[in-house]
Amino acid sequence: MSDDKGLEKGQAPDEGAEADLDPNHYHLRLYVAGQTAKSLAATANLRRFCEEHLAGRYDIEVIDLMKNPKLAAGDQILAIPTLVRRLPSPLKRIIGDLSNTEKVLVGLDIRPKDAP
User: Fold this and answer.
1) Reported confidence tier of residue 5, pLDDT bands at 50, 70, 90
2) SS3 breakdown of the chain: % helix, strand, coil, rounded to 5?
3) Domain count, the chain
4) Is residue 114 included in any domain, yes or no?
5) Residue 113 domain-assigned?
6) What is the pLDDT of residue 74?
């Protein structure tokens, strides 16, 4: 995490981007504070989760609040790490290292692959 913001999957978070119009595409922001164990765990867990459950249907923006603390106000970040699902609406937040897959599935409103 060398930048204030890091995007994955080559998707720019432009307001008019096609991904923003797809209700099956997830735009996720992960707020962290530096290279702490919790921040690194949350980042790794989110990447693993997305590849397993949202392959090809997501982009991740990692925001390091140690580098740009003012960005916390926009999504009302009170604790870190915090994952914010920007799209699809409605906005959702999950606080923690994202190690509990079931909690992340419920928090992001995603059905497990084996669910009917």
Assistant:
1) very low
2) 30, 25, 50
3) 1
4) no
5) no
6) 83
Residue 116 is assigned to a structural domain of this protein: no
Q: Per residue in 26-85, pLDDT tens?
A: 999 999 999 999 999 999 999 999 999 999 999 999 999 999 998 888 888 989 999 999
Q: How many helices (H) and strands (E) does the chain have?
A: 3, 5
Count CB-CB contacts under 10 A for residue 37. 8
- Which of the four pLDDT bands, split at 50, 70 and 90, describes residue 91? very high
Listed in sequence order, the residues at least 6 apart from 25 whose beta carbon sits closer than 8 Å to its beta carbon are 19, 57, 58, 59, 87, 88
Domain that holds residue 56: 5-107
Which two structure tokens, joined as six digits, stand for 115?
Answer: 């669910």
Q: What is the CATH number of the domain that holds 38?
A: 3.40.30.10
19 has a pLDDT exceeding 60: no
Distance, in Å, from the CA atom of 110 to the CA atom of 91, rounded to the nearest integer, reads 14
In a domain, 71, yes or no: yes
pTM of this prediction exceeds 0.85:
no
Backbone angles phi, psi at 40, to 5 degrees: -65, -40
